[in-house]
Design brief:
With 258 residues, the protein is an alpha/beta fold. The chain has helices at residues 8-11, 22-35, 50-55, 68-91, 101-104, 118-125, 149-160, 193-201, 207-221, 239-244; strands at residues 2-6, 39-43, 96-98, 106-108, 111-113, 129-133, 135-139, 143-147, 164-169, 174-175, 187-188, 190-191, 228-233, 251-254. The strands form four sheets. Strands 3-6-2-1-9-13-14-12 form an eight-stranded mixed beta sheet, with helices on both faces. Strands 4-5 form a two-stranded antiparallel ribbon. The structure holds Isopentenyl phosphate.
Length: 258
C-alpha cells in the first residue's frame, strides 16, 4: 500500500485565494488510477487554507475573538476543496469518501489525536478510500490549531504501515539550496540520516538549507528499514504514474530512518 500526499502547491495556486488546479488534479487522479496501486490519499490545503490561516494566525490557537469567524471560514473553504478533490477521484473511478480531520478528530497542543481509526479502516475494508486533508482542528488546550496534511500522513503511517510514502509537490525534489535563488543548486536524489548530519555540521548552512533540513527530517521520520519516502514533481505529466509503477524518475528518496 502507498500513502500519497498531494501537496497544496500542486492542487491549488498558492499565490491566489481559493484557486483550484482542476486540470492538474484530474491528470494526477488518472495517473493514480492507471498505476493500479493500492493507495490512500491525503491532500494539503493550499490557498484554500493558508491565506486566511496566516492572516488570522490560526496556528497559534485562540488568542483573539476575531479569529473565531476565520476558523469557521477556513474549515468551510478546505471542505469545498476536499469535495472538488473527491469529485475528481470519483470521476477517475476511485471510490473515495471525505474524512474531515476538524470534524472527526481532536488535537492536544498541536498533536493530532487519532486513537480510534475504525472509520478509516472500515472504509478501506470496503475498498473505499478515506480522504483526509490539512484542516483547522479543535484543540483540547489551545481551542483550535492547524493540522497539516504532512502531520496526518505521519499519523497514518502508524495505522496503514505503507510500504512507501509519496509526497507530490511542484518541485523536482529536495535541493541543497533553494533552486529559485541558487540556479546551480544540486538535486539530492537520496537523503539519509548520514547526509542530514553532514548538512547540519556544515557551518555555512543558511536559512534555506535549514528549511531543506526540516523537510529531510520529516521525510526521514516516516521511513523505516522497510519503507522509503519519495518527493516527486506532480506538475510534470506522467512522473507520478511512473514512480507508482516502480520506475526510476527524477525525485528525492529518503531512506533508512532518522
Ligand atoms: O497544506 C494546512 O495543511 P497543509 C492546513 O498540508 C490549513 O500544510 C488549514 C492551513
Amino acid at each position: 500500500m502507498i500513502l500519497i500526499k498531494l501537496g497544496g502547491s500542486v492542487i491549488t495556486d498558492k499565490t491566489q485565494y481559493r484557486i483550484f488546479n482542476r486540470d492538474t488534479v484530474r491528470r494526477l487522479c488518472a495517473e493514480i488510477k492507471d498505476s493500479g496501486v493500492d493507495s490512500v490519499i491525503v491532500h494539503g490545503a493550499g490557498s484554500f487554507g493558508h491565506v486566511l490561516a496566516k492572516k488570522y494566525s490560526l496556528q497559534n490557537g485562540l488568542v483573539d475573538p476575531a479569529q473565531v469567524p476565520a476558523v469557521a471560514r477556513v474549515q468551510y473553504d478546505v471542505r469545498e476543496l476536499n469535495l472538488m478533490m473527491l469529485d475528481e477521484l470519483l470521476n477517475a473511478g476511485i471510490p473515495a469518501v471525505s474524512v474531515p480531520p476538524g470534524s472527526c478528530f481532536m488535537m492536544a497542543d498541536g498533536k493530532l489525536l487519532l486513537d480510534d481509526p475504525e472509520v478509516l479502516l472500515s472504509a478501506s475494508r470496503l475498498g473505499i478510500m478515506p480522504v483526509m486533508f490539512g484542516d483547522v482542528v479543535f484543540d483540547r488546550n489551545k481551542g483550535f490549531g492547524i493540522c497539516s496534511g504532512d502531520q496526518i500522513v505521519e499519523v497514518l503511517c502508524g495505522i496503514y504501515h505503507p510500504e512507501r510514502v509519496v509526497f507530490v509537490s511542484d518541485v523536482d525534489g529536495l535541493f541543497e539550496k533553494d533552486p529559485k535563488t541558487n540556479p546551480d543548486s544540486k538535486l539530492l536524489t537520496e537523503v539519509t540520516s548520514e547526509l542530514l548530519s553532514r548538512v547540519s555540521s556544515d557551518s555555512s548552512v543558511d536559512d534555506v538549507t535549514g528549511g531543506v533540513r526540516a523537510k529531510m527530517e520529516a521525510m526521514l521520520r516516516m521511513t523505516s528499514p522497510e519503507r522509503d519516502c519519495v518527493l516527486v514533481n506532480g506538475s510534470v505529466k506522467g512522473r507520478l504514474c511512473s514512480l507508482l509503477k516502480g520506475e526510476r524518475v527524477i525525485s528525492t528518496t529518503a531512506k533508512g530512518g532518522l
